[in-house]
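The authors assume throughout that readers already know how a fold can be written as discrete tokens. The format is easy to grasp once an entry is in front of the reader. For illustration, here is how one protein appears when written out as sequence plus structure tokens:
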Amino acid sequence: MSVSALAYLGVGSDKCEEWSEFAGRLLGMQQVDRGGKSLTFRMDDRKQRLAISGEAGDTLAFMGWEVDSCDDLTMYANRLENTGIEVAEGSRALADRRCVEALVCFRDPEGNRVELCWNPIVDTEPFRPGRPISGFKTGPLGMGHAVLHVRDPAPCVKFYTDLLDFNLTDYGLTPYPLYFFHVNGRHHSFALVGSGGAGFHHFMVEYQNLDDVGQGYDLAQHEEGLIAYTLGRHTNDFMTGFYANSPSGFFVENGWGGRVIDPDEWEPHETFDGPSFWGHERLYLPEQTRGKLRRMRLDAAARGVRGPPISQCPWLYSEIAGT
């Protein structure tokens, strides 16, 4: 796979004070002072993972996807241009702002800005989290995952799989279309919600320690309206966590214990049990919609649907055993 990981995200927002508090104190990212009105944050040894533009808008500004080699940038640019998609080579100044060696830029069928980048810069200074955490699960798995609202999933599914080589992991059609894609061993680094809308649904950060999620949940409960989804566990990637309302109106998933798959052996399939085994009460939704999702959880519980216990999950057990 030439696209190997979600490298970084950019948010168009002028709510810099709110984002400083949210990303630093709640999520535990390290704010980096680069001057000007924009904000940038670290999650690991990479120089930059999240950027806040300082401009009004409160939406996804760009997604940065890492490729394996500089030649991949040319290959993808040619492939996209051959289908009539306009591709721009990132300037040296833009590459410096993104903290990468090189990049190309274009837009997906819904108008979202996509950037393919090569050779992200590693910081010489150690990562210093904004609150005491054990760190984020990144490395070859990337920053986490990003999820977009789409009006019609079909053109985007074709775009990301046929042109960018994303791999479909699984999909569900009830109570609304959901498509999940992997580019490495992380169960999904990207997903589409066929909500009929547009824009950013959420991004996910995964912690090394479940207690980091729980302590963040405690922090979030002290601020009215900060929790969007209560604590719960997903059916497809087995992630345990909660969702917070970001300062820009979309969500951020705070998770632990995500499933790691073998991309060479994986077979895409349809799922039928809904998004969550338990929890994840969507506090922002009207009761009628919440009720549909709640009934799906209760039905799964009545049928005894469970995720594997930790002792049978190598990806979780290895974390606990420290191997």
In short: The longest strand covers residues 3-12. The helical segments are 16-26, 70-82, 92-98, 153-163, 210-221, 287-302, 314-321. The radius of gyration is 19 Å.
